Amino acid sequence: MPCIRESNRVEFSRIIVILSLLLISLLLHYELLSQSNNKIDSLIFRLEVSKDDSARIASLTEIAKYYSSTNLSLSFQYADKALEIAENSKNKQLHAEALMSIGNISFFQGLLDISFQHYSKALAINKESGNNNGIANALTNLGGILLQLMKFEEAKRYFHEALPLFMELAEKRGDTIPPFQVISIYNNLGIVHENLNEYNMAIDYYHRGISLASRIPQQQKTLAMLHNNLGSIHMKMGDFDEAYKNMNAALIIRKEMNDKSGEASSYRMLGILYKSQQNYAEALNNFYNGYNLAASVGSTSILASLNEHLFEVFNLLNQPDSALKYHILLKHYSDKLKGEETLLEFSRMEISSQFQEKENIRLIEQRKQKLRYLFIAILLLLVVVILGLLYVLSQSRLRRLSLLNNNIQLASEKAALEKTALTKELEIKNKELTTNVIYQIRKNELINNIADKLMTNRHNFKKENQSLIKDIISDLENSKEDSVWMEFETRFHNVHNEFYEKLNEINPDLTPNERRLCAFLRLNMSTKEISTITGQSLRSIDVARTRLRQKLNLTNAEVGLIEYLSGI
Prior knowledge:
Distance between the termini: 118 Å
CATH topology of the domain at 30-155: Serine Threonine Protein Phosphatase 5, Tetratricopeptide repeat
Radius of gyration: 51 Å
Structural class: mainly alpha
Low-confidence stretches: 1-35
Largest sheet: none
């Protein structure tokens, strides 16, 4: 490709054109200034004659919007006044609208923290009052802030929450076309997915926005922006024909609207498209067209961007003189942008400081109000307390006595229930012990009887069965529980774990049979039951009981042996 050079004559002509456009721009500025003065006078007059809160808030909001681009501090004064009237009116809708107004002014001036706070408050009020339109608008604006902060996933969630609300509202109104906010949401979702590198999703949302914006005449500006965004993403994907088609469509729309700044932006995008294809002649042509338009409207940001691209193109074309020229211009406009941004940042800092100061004052006033209410409440409470003190004290005393009696009764009942439960549990375990030992003894007796009978009568069996009978007798002998008493004492000790220790402390000279008799009596077993278990005669057991009373020093005592042992 041949090198493209600019002649000095062409450069001089371009400078003349730019100066002419600047002169025209100045004349237009003075004409617009005159019109704007008339507008602000009209708004202030309308504010002065307004009687109801709604009209006054609307006028204050319009005035705040008017000053937002020229006098940010004054803009916030009017917006705060609107918010104050809305809060005092106790009208939730007016309150939410005033909050949204401050949020909008803050958003467009880059005060995103303040904007987010006001949108969030408006969202909460709209949710409380069930205002779906207000909810949807607040969600959309909050999503816009998150998009600015590059929190794409969070922004996407807000947009998807707002979208069905707008659709539902349109359906209820019977509208065939969704509200214009839906177009904005589609565009924003396209930007979100583009930044998440989900290009197909982004293209889908851009197409949805274009389809909808094409049906609404008032949305031509948004339509051009959608075409531009769609062209940009096609350029990223290397689909240059689609990119050109959409960027050119955006340019045509902006020309029809006489949107000079938009045209400059479109030419810039077309220049970037041609530059990416190394078609530097067409790139320069589009950059120059954009440059002239940007200069005519005084768009510093577009001029800075165009100078950067012109510098890059001439650098690629190895034309150092032209590259240097645009690098100098780039430095000039970049410094100008930084200066404007610095001034704007100072203004933002001032507004943020004022906002924080007002917020602190508001919180202090809230605390004071709460303290006043608290003081009044305490006074009223003291009056009530003084008037009813005697009655309360007497009733309190009666209640305490009643409660004490109830607690004593409940404690007594609980103790009785626990004692009954323990007694029943003990009885059950005692019965289990008795049953188990009787079962084991009777089983042994049965085995002994069977073994004795087999032994006695084994000569009556056939000779060939003698060996079998002998084995059966041996098996029966082996199946007897020789450790019945040991198992009984183990089980008994598990239930009455300290019985033997205490018995040993009273008289350590008790024989094992006497200790076992004590255990049977502790289980409240009768002489007959003990006789059945031990195989002793009733007389022998009575003698053993008498001897046991003597050893336990109960000979002349009125307490019975079973009662005494149960207390151990």
